[in-house]
Amino acid sequence: MTTRQSIKRWNIGIFVLLIAGFVCLGVVEGVALPRQDQQEALYNEAQNNPLTHDITRTASFATPYMGNAAKVSGLFQSLPVGPIRSFALDPDEFTVQVNLDFSVPMAEADRDRAYLYSATAAFAYIDNLEAVIFNQGSAAYRVTREELLHWYGVDQFSSLTTNSATWQAAVQNKLTDREYTRQAFQELFHESETLSV
Predict the structure, then answer these.
(1) Which of 31, 132, 188, 192 could crosslink 142 through cysteines, CB 3.0-4.6 Å?
(2) C-alpha–C-alpha distance, residues 20 and 108, integer Å
(3) 41 and 60 share a domain?
(4) Is 3 part of any domain?
(5) Rounded to an integer, what distance in angstroms lies between the CA atom of residue 6 and that of residue 146?
(6) What's the predicted TM-score (pTM) here?
(7) How far apart are CA 169 and CA 50, in angstroms?
(8) What pLDDT digit, counting tens, does each position of 62-101 carry?
(9) Is residue 23 located within the same domain as residue 76?
(10) How many domains does the chain have?
(11) Do the Cβ atoms of 125 and 167 come closer than 8 Å?
């Protein structure tokens, strides 16, 4: 009898463990994973907006030379500049041209914000980059490292990327002011010819 009772208890214990396992699996599959997927989707969506972009994910593309096409391409793809068709690099002038796909037009305020944010990040993470051209097809806008350094009142862009809090205070938070971004675009981004390379 004691053997029969211990086997019965053993079977009940296994049954209880199986039920608990199924309940835990249901919670993980039905609640935790969907919540995690939703948070990841929201985070990825936030990366398309200069106001919510996480600059730390761009740091891995830092390079001392703009000739490193893989790093330059990865950097701009990680930035909230809009849909990119292609790139052109001019190593003689240390210039990157970002050819944008503007089949879906961007509002002026969004454009100003995206260009200012993306150019600042590009100069911060590509050490020898001297100019960026944003080519919209119908118009191209050029900004230089020197002008942007003067705009921020710093000697080096590395001072803006020491940590994410510094970046947010010096660059990102200011983008909420539409007048600030409009003025930056008017003063810094000059209509330009596209690269012929």
Answers:
(1) 192
(2) 56
(3) no
(4) no
(5) 82
(6) 0.79
(7) 13
(8) 999 988 889 999 999 999 988 888 999 998 999 999 999 8
(9) no
(10) 2
(11) no
